[in-house]
Design goal:
rod-shaped, mainly beta, Immunoglobulin-like, 6-stranded mixed sheet, single chain, 28 strands, 2 domains, 7% helix, 38% strand, 1 helix, 5-stranded antiparallel sheet, 382 residues
Length: 382
């Protein structure tokens, strides 16, 4: 009989201990701990050793209470690969999605107030940047912060870099290429983990072939060229038939020079002739007195002269508008050296410059058939 009593006494003792443990568990308040959801960290630049903005988001099931809770963002939980040097509190934003839908990160953000020191106002946060452990922590400031600063089920967004409204100036330097964990932790109890991939950019190369199109087009009689009016037509792009010259009126003709080029620094077009407008070595028409550097009004009718003009008012050498300034109608003598008549400092598409030819004779100009060849050279600058 004593053995039976002893056996049941042991059973009763074990049952009693179990009941005590159950009762203790019932009176212990469960710790606040849950897993965050929707964790992500979006980089503005994923290249190694490159400064980048971070936009970190997560949903906290528990929320963050005042005075006691902290949020800690740990960059690279396996080491300290990121460089937070230079980050200050104005480079950081902390916001909560407040549209009333739990777990929604739609972007209806309410910014929390971040300060570097406590001002005793309510609902302030003090961010602390630890460049040794690569951590940024957020601590509610002072005892004035009462109640839940961030509601349970809210989506939290942390922006770091020039994307912060601080205004943010400094960014976090990326480590070498690899995949890194960004941990969310702190005394508020919830934990989470995001990942970022730091990877070299893809080098994209391409070649655009150099292009140049240059055409010379005829201009009809009665058209304007740098204020003057043409009296004869150029019937083809390569001919200037001045016809029978007269002492009573000068003869004027023109050509349109159209240029298309993708040259980075644009183009320059020059003109020159092979010789004076002449019959032979002993008989020619005098050149106009004006020069390319200093063009002048053309000689009046009855005076022997031959020259050219341009309506380009932005030439690349000398005085840019020397042919068109002061009412225009200024002319220069041809030479056997190339001189500028059209210019652009950047790529152009079908940019048209009109050049003119003018000839006059005197009563003593020898009779005969006069000729010369005018050459245009268009040079793109890449």
């Amino acid at each position: 009989m004593p053995k039976i009593v002893k056996k049941y006494s042991k059973i009763a003792l074990i049952l009693g201990l179990i009941l005590v443990l159950v009762a203790m568990y019932a009176v212990i308040t469960p710790a606040r701990a849950a897993s965050c959801t929707k964790e992500k960290d979006t980089l503005s630049d994923s290249r190694p050793s490159t400064a980048s903005n971070h936009t970190i988001q997560f949903v906290t099931p528990t929320g963050v209470n005042a005075t006691t809770d902290t949020i800690i963002i740990k960059f690279d939980d396996a080491g300290n690969a990121f460089d937070l040097t230079g980050i200050v509190y104005t480079d950081i934003d902390l916001a909560e999605d407040t549209d009333g839908t739990p777990g929604d990160c739609s972007g209806t953000w309410t910014d929390e107030v971040l300060v570097d020191t406590d001002t005793a106002a309510t609902n302030e946060w003090i961010p602390t940047i630890n460049t040794t452990t690569d951590e940024i922590s957020f601590q509610p400031a002072a005892a004035n912060d009462t109640g839940a600063l961030i509601a349970a089920g809210a989506c939290v967004q942390i922006e770091i870099g020039t994307n912060a409204a601080g205004p943010g100036v400094n960014q976090i330097d990326n480590p070498v290429a690899g995949v890194y964990d960004i941990d969310v932790a702190g005394t508020f109890g919830d934990t989470g983990k995001a990942k970022v991939a730091v990877i070299s950019g893809v080098s994209v190369t391409a070649t655009v072939a150099e292009t140049l199109t240059f055409t010379i087009s005829a201009v009809a009689s009665g058209q304007t060229v740098n204020v003057a009016t043409t009296t004869v037509a150029t019937t083809a792009g390569d001919a200037v038939p001045l016809g029978a010259l007269s002492t009573s009126a000068n003869t004027i003709a023109a050509h349109d020079l159209a240029t298309t080029t993708n040259a980075t620094n644009g183009y320059t077009t020059t003109t020159q002739y092979t010789q004076k407008l002449r019959i032979d070595a002993s008989n020619d028409i005098d050149d106009h007195s004006g020069t390319n550097a200093s063009p002048s009004v053309f000689s009046s009718a009855g005076t022997e002269a031959f020259g050219y003009t341009t309506n380009d008012s932005s030439l690349g050498t000398g005085t840019a508008d020397r042919f068109t300034s002061g009412g225009g109608n200024k002319w220069a003598a041809f030479t056997t050296s190339p001189l500028e008549v059209a210019y652009s400092s950047s790529p152009v598409s079908a940019e048209t410059t009109r050049t003119g030819y003018q000839a006059g004779i005197s009563a003593t100009t020898p009779a005969g058939s006069y000729s010369t060849t005018v050459t245009y050279i268009c040079t793109p600058t890449y």
